[in-house]
Amino acid sequence: MSDTESPELPLRADLQSAHAEIVSLRAQRNELVLLRVQLMGRDRQIRALQAKLDELARRAFGKKSEKLDPHQLRLALAVTTWLSTSHRNT
Q1: What distance lies between CA 87 and its chain's CA centroid?
Q2: CB neighbours of 7 closer than 8 A, spacing ≥ 6?
Q3: Rg of the Cα trace of the chain?
């Protein structure tokens, strides 16, 4: 170091760069907080839409679509009976 250089100059530059880094980190943290709030809002929206979709699916494909026609039951019984009797005959 020469006689004209002050030892404070590098220290000031380091403090300025550290301060700039702190400011940058705070801005990044604030952006992350904002993104997290937005994400939580979207998660709530997805849950609400999923609940609506589930309700619509229950309305469209609920118990009514699961009911069996009595003719289907008779047919199944007839096929089962036929298979069991034809199996005995072979």
Answers
A1: 53
A2: 1
A3: 37
Name the residue ranges covered by the structural domains of the chain: 8-65
Task: Give, as one character, the DSSP assignment of residue 7.
Answer: T
Question: Cα separations (Å) of 38 from 26, 43, 48?
Answer: 18, 9, 15
Q: Name the pLDDT band for 1 (thresholds 50, 70, 90).
A: very low
* SS3 state at 69: coil
CA–CA gap between residue 76 and residue 80 (Å, rounded): 6
User: What burial letters (b/e) apply to 25-40, b meaning 16+ CB within 10 Å?
Assistant: eeeeeeeeeeeeeeee
pTM above 0.70, yes or no: no
